[in-house]
Amino acid sequence: MSSVVRSLNEHAGAGVPFSVEFNPPRDVAGEARLWRTVREFERMHPAFVSMTYGAGGSTKDRTVRITGALAQETTLLPVAHLTAVGHSVAELRSLIGSYADSGIRNVLILRGDPPGDPLGEWHRHPDGVEYAEELVRIVRDLGDFHVGVASFPQGHHRSPDLDHDTRHLAAKLRAGAEYSITQMFFDVEHYLRLRDRVIAMDPVEGAKPIIPELMPITSLRTVRRAEELCGRALPASVLERLTRAAGTGPEEDRAAVRAAGIEIATEIAQRLIDEGAPCLHFITLNFAKATSEVLTNLGYRARAAVA
Ligand code: FAD
Questions:
Q1: 158 lines ligand 1 (CB under 6 A)
Q2: Which of 79, 134, 146, 274 could form a disulfide with 3 if both were Cys (CB 3.0 to 4.6 A apart)?
Q3: CATH architecture of 4-216+277-297
Q4: According to the UniProt entry, where is the signal peptide (predicted)?
């Protein structure tokens, strides 16, 4: 099975590649919807698709089964997110074994956040790991896995400053990660400064792909979700555009908010393409339509599979 970096290179000939993130569905109806979304994206040939991991393994069995099915029953390259929260090293090894058994060789290694309150105090599992970097080493030692990690354009919320944050990102890359995927952002300058910081700190690790993550806003409710995922309030200029579109009536003008959200995501994506981003990674919340519209605006078409 291919690796993310190899797939990015293979897809680059047709323009800047894109990739999408899915979440483990909660029930049978959610699973059916996910599969419809998967089939729609399959026609557009993303460089890879990633599946998040519920905090503390709350949906572990379903997540492993569905991610395995992505590997076995589609033409897509799946990346399994793996978090250290609530797991001993033995459990993490066993989980990695389950992924390997179903044909998954690409994993995004994360520490995770305390379940219930992402900003709450972090306690490692007594037999677990303290930082994602340790888990990167464990997974690399297990054999033939391709590993990615998280990066934070505005710094991780627990990092005292950007220098500390960059140092630990470089350490995760040095430990064997081949690329990073960023936390979502709405100001491209933050992404560009992150890229500059990593290159300045470690030119070798800084040459590895930093894949920007973005999400089209489709309603004022998604604004709150986006702020949770960014870990910060949206920039005032973005919020202003969305609230202006929502109007002053008793109900938000959903069509106008959606149109503004798609326009904002298209502008961010275009700037990232112009700045040489290696890929555009979209949070989809398991829906295809908004991301497809952004891709269409950017000139992507469903195209023949990359050889
Ligand atoms: P780490 O790299 O361990 O860093 C955590 C903090 O410790 C940082 O402040 C870092 O600077 C600091 N640090 C690291 N190493 C050291 C050291 N040696 N000494 C001192 N300080 C150190 N969460 C989920 O639950 N499931 C998911 O599927 C998921 N997917 C995500 C995907 C992406 C692209 C991103 C950006 C985040 C995702 N998250 C997910 C959230 C993520 O788990 C949290 O943001 C978490 O708080 C940080 O994880 P990390 O892997 O960056 O941690």
A1: yes
A2: 146
A3: Alpha-Beta Barrel (3.20)
A4: none
